[in-house]
Every structure is written in structure tokens, then in C-alpha cells.
Amino acid sequence: MTSAVVVLVALAVLGLLAGAHLYLWRRFVRDVTAPGSPWRRVGAVAAVVLPLTSVGALVAGRSGVPFAVEQALAWPGYLWLACLLYLLLALLAGELVRWVAARTPWGVRRRTATATGPAPQPPAPAEAAPVGAATGTTDAAGTVGTADAAGTAGTVTAAVTGGGTPYGATAAAPSPTDAAPHGTDRAADRDPEATAGPRTGSAPQPEGAGSLTVPLSAPLPGRRVFLARTLAVTAATVGLGTTAAGAWSVLNGPTLKKLTVPLAKLGRRAHGYRIAVVSDIHLGPTLGRAHTRRIVETINRTQPDLITIVGDLADGTVADLGPAAEPLRELRSRHGAYFVTGNHEYFGDAHAWLDHLRELGVHPLENARRELPGFDLAGVNDIQGEDQGEGPDYAKALGDRDTARPVVLMAHQPVMVHEAVEHGVDLQLSGHTHGGQLWPGPYLAALANPTVAGLDRYGDTQLYVTRGAGAWGPPVRVGAESDITVVTLASGD
Is 325:314 a contact under the CB 8 Å cutoff? Predict the structure, then answer.
């Protein structure tokens, strides 16, 4: 990958992070806090510090910083990345709910009922003041009429926006000729129904003026804030709760799975042979010695005949993580423990790790094969090793063998099964996918792997993919529980 491509990818990632955090700030801070409040200031600081911590965690492992600094950045930085994912998913689900609710009949009725009510009625007609009388003012629900001593017409201001004169506009009062002389008995005073014209001192009353309707271009402010806070609290509860449960799943150790795989060539002598399969332990700044010890104890309790470690042991150097791998020395089985490289071994010094594993009593299979009772065990290097001239060599690992004997192949990536089919492999054991690790990760993992987790068949070759025992990046798993699998071989189909 060229430097230009690396820079473009880095800029794209940073742009996505910035956009995601801006969206979170709007929904969790701006929409629910008052300007200038302490909570808004805290939210603004968090919106800057948290993404910087995550970026620091991502680059620290390859920047040569002290391992203690890497650990200090890893826990908050990686955990926040998982929180970010599930907070975004929860907020997007909330946006959909809000959009649907605003368009349901209940939502429409609710908003209309809140903004509609009885309109103020105009004042009752009054006797016209005699010429020269003092100015009279009537004020009822915002309707004001005035007349000066000379009989000059005043103004009438209508507060009813649903009909008549718009809010804030003025309408001319009746002319002096419309007022009856002092002492004159008007027919309109005796019988209001007798005249069809508007009454003196009152605004016209068009049809529909009995209700006050406010335009509903946006929800009322109080309701809008309440809805924003409800969605924020719900999204925070779902997002943070999901991340916490996923972290507990990893830190509590992998679950134990059991699987029986029949092999057509397997003789009766090897029937019931038990292989412990573990992959993707991923020792690093968040998963250390205690994580390895839990894995070793789980495997030893099963009393397997053979232990296979299918790549991606560590994310770091032997100098930093050698002590974390030390419990592997305590692995126990009848025929030993074997290891093949994964892609992460080649991100660092793969040879240093292979030498260290030999010191711990684990046997690396570098494009090699061993004869075991009833079958052959083979292992090939990971595809990532091709960049260093150390890729998989199937001919070396599988050539010149007795094809009447079944062969079990250790290969880190499931995609390597296509070569395994061509070389007559009976069973391939793989990892790499983590089962997707973080939902909806399984759907993305399926785009690059023929099998994400579990047992599948490709021609005459069976492929088993474990979800792995650790986690890469965030020490969190959601929808893809970590596991160690005991595969029991059975003779016959």
C-alpha cells in the first residue's frame, strides 16, 4: 500500500470520526442542555478528548511509545470506540422512531390539541360616545378600540390569527357617520339580528374565527426538549449498556464449545480423538496474563488429546508481552500443543514469537506436518507472510504423505480452504474472523470470508472456524461470543 493511499485512508477515517462525534454532540449536548451551562461545557470537552484518546490508542502500538503509555490509552480509547458504535446505532434507531411518531395519527392529534384552543371573543357592542365625550377604551383579550373627542376613527387590533385581520395588523374603525346621534334609539341596539353590517366598535367575525390555530411548522419548544432528552437518555442507556455487557463477556473468559466431526478416512483406533481449538488470543495492552491464564485453565479442564493454537497470539513484542504469554507453559495434553502464524504475527517480529513459543513448550508448524495416531496434523503460514517471503506452502506441508490417512490442517484464515480442497485436506481448523466480534460485524466479515463461524463443507473438505478467545481493538464482543472448541473426531461419515 503506497503512502498516498495510507494518507487518504487515514483522512477518511478521521473525517468519519469527526462527523460521528459532531452528531453525538448535537444529540447528547446541544439539544438537551442550556447554552453556557456546565453540562454543555463538559460535553464540549468530552467531544474533543474522547476521539483524540481513541486515535491515540490506534496509533500507539505502532509508534514506539512505552508500553505503559499504550496501556493507559488503550482502555479508554478502545472502549470509547465500542461505545461510539452502539451510541450511534441507538441514536439512529431513535431518529427513526421520532420520524414515525411525528407522522402517526396520535402524534398529529397531540400536536394539534396542544396548539389549538378557543379564540378570544370581540367585546359586546357599546353605545356610541357623543361628540366631545372623553375617549373610551375597551380591552378584552387583546382587542382595543379608541375614539377621540372629535369623533375621529381609532384603530382596532385583532389578536385572532385564524381569520380576520392578521396578528399585529390594524383595521380602520367605523366612520363617524355610522354612529347614531346622542339619544337616538338604534335598531341594532334593540335587535342585534336586524342589521347585516358589522357592529360599531367590533371587528368583523368571519366563519371559523371561533378557534385559534397556531401554524405547526415545528413542535412546541417544551415538547421538543422533552423528546430530545428522552431519546438521549434512552440511547445512552442502550449504547453504554451494550458496551458494558460486551466487555464483561470478554473479560469473563471464553465459553467452551463441543463439536463432533466425522472423517471418512479416520480409523477406529482414532475414533473419539479430542482436539482443543483456540485462536485469536490477542494478547495486548488490554488483555494480558490473566486472560492467558483463563484460557489455559479452560483448556486443561477438558483434558484434550491435542491442543491447536490457530494464529494471532499477540499484538506486540515479546519484550512487552512475553510475560503475558507465560501461562501457555502450563498447557497439558497427550500429544502436545501446536501453533501456526496468523496475520497479526507478521505485523511485528514473527520469528521472535515463534522462538518464544518453543521455549514455552508449544510447537510451531511452519508449513510442516506431524504424524499422530490415526491422522496427520499439518500447518501452514498465514497469507500475510507472503509480504515477507514466508507465505503458505501447501506442497511442503501436504506433499509426499500417505493419502489413505486423514489430514487435519491448521490454517489461520478461512479463505485458505480453497487451497485445502485442492490438496485433499479432510478438516481445516481456522480462526481470524472473531465471528464478527461487534454486531453488525458478522455481516461485514461474511464479505471477506467463506465461513464466519462454525462448521461448513467445501467439496470433500470440512472447515471449522472458531470465533477466537480474545478480541482485537475494543475488548468487547457483541453478538459473537468468544469460545474455545473441543473437536471430537469420529470415524466414518
Answer: yes
The one-letter amino acid at 449: N
pLDDT tops 80 at residue 488 = yes
8 A C-beta contact, residue 124 and residue 145: no
Q: Is the whole-model pTM more than 0.85?
A: no
387 or 129, which is more confident? 387
* C-alpha–C-alpha distance, residues 336 and 408, integer Å: 15
Is the Cβ–Cβ distance between 405 and 265 less than 8 Å?
yes
pLDDT of 237 strictly over 70:
yes
Angle in degrees, CA 283, 286, 288, rounded to 5: 45
Is the Cβ–Cβ distance between 320 and 289 less than 8 Å? no
Range of the domain at 103: 3-110+220-238
Question: Phi and psi (nearest 5°) for 487?
Answer: -95, 120
Residue 62 phi/psi, 5-degree rounding, is -115, 10
Q: Does the residue 452 lie in any domain?
A: yes
Residues 224 and 319 in one domain: no
Phi–psi pair at 162, nearest 5 degrees: -80, -10
Q: How far are the Cα atoms of 46, 225, 278, 471 from residue 312, in angstroms, in the given order?
A: 34, 48, 10, 10
pLDDT digits (tens, 9 = 90+) for 152-211: 333 333 333 334 443 344 444 444 444 444 444 444 344 444 444 444 444 455 444 444
Tell me if 32 is assigned to some domain.
Answer: yes
Pick the more confident residue, 371 or 176: 371
